[in-house]
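Worked example 3 (structure in, sequence out).
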């Protein structure tokens, strides 16, 4: 049986909100979680706490998803974040702060501003500023990049309830549009398109895998958050410590290198086929 994407997403949102609203009742059974990123690991951890048997399947050879701390070949315990890096203030990333406290991790404040950044474009290092970009490659690059954000801002204003963005009058239409296809309609010059795409890949994912609705609701949400609450912290010692700590609390180890190829609905549950076999739940 095939389920529409929006139906699946709505059911997932309902599950998450019910878990946040009140403790889940004790239960027995077997739940299969696909993906060992933070969302999958947290789901498995919370289900395990109330009595469910949980198996986590992960396609890659590591856990963490978009959270990845690189430690080699650096010396003297140095490391770099190759994935999700910044953690917003507790008013924004409430659940992140909750789990960081629960697993005894510490935060380090981020003391950097965008004025300290650089562009590395076409073999050149440039200061992170529109003026430097225009001087090197022309004003059209910055103009086209800004046009992307201006059009996104107009769409974000159509979402008036950020707790229920799916209720927006244009939600269904926006969700049917692949973000990369919408970007093509803007006719950005190639370098502006590259800059926009790379930003989206670093912040979310490849535009080919995102809907326009996803980005619009993100813009609507962050329009309501003061800048001084954003990108304030990193986990001391590396962000990958959080998914690793969650995984250690699970009774069963995460099954790595097990990409899911099929999910079959059965009379009493599901059968999941993955790279290392089959499992029912």
């Amino acid at each position: 049986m095939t389920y529409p994407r929006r139906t699946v997403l709505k059911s997932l949102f309902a599950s998450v909100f019910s878990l946040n609203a009140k403790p889940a009742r004790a239960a027995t059974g077997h739940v299969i979680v696909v993906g060992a990123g933070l969302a999958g690991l947290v789901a498995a951890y919370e289900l395990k706490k109330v009595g469910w048997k949980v198996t986590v399947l992960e396609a890659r050879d590591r856990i963490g998803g978009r959270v990845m701390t690189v430690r080699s070949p650096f010396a003297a315990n140095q490391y770099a974040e190759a994935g999700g890096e910044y953690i917003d203030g507790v008013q924004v990333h409430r659940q992140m702060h909750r789990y960081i406290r629960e697993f005894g991790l510490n935060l380090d404040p981020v003391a950097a501003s965008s004025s300290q950044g650089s562009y590395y474009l076409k073999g050149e290092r440039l200061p992170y500023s529109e003026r430097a970009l225009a001087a090197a490659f022309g004003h059209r690059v910055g103009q086209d990049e800004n046009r992307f954000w201006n059009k996104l801002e107009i769409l974000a204003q159509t979402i008036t309830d950020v707790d229920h963005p799916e209720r927006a009058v244009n939600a269904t239409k926006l969700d049917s549009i692949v973000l990369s296809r919408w970007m093509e309609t803007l006719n950005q010059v190639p370098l502006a398109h590259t800059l926009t795409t790379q930003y989206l890949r670093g912040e979310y994912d490849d535009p080919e895998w995102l809907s326009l609705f996803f980005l619009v609701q993100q813009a609507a949400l962050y329009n309501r958050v003061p800048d001084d609450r954003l990108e304030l912290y990193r986990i001391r010692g590396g962000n990958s410590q959080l998914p690793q700590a969650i995984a250690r609390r699970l009774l069963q180890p995460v099954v790595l290198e097990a990409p899911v190829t099929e999910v079959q609905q059965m009379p009493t549950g599901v059968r999941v086929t993955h790279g290392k076999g089959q499992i029912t739940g």
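Notes: Confidence is low (pLDDT under 50) at residues 1-21. Residues 139-156 form the longest helix (18 residues).
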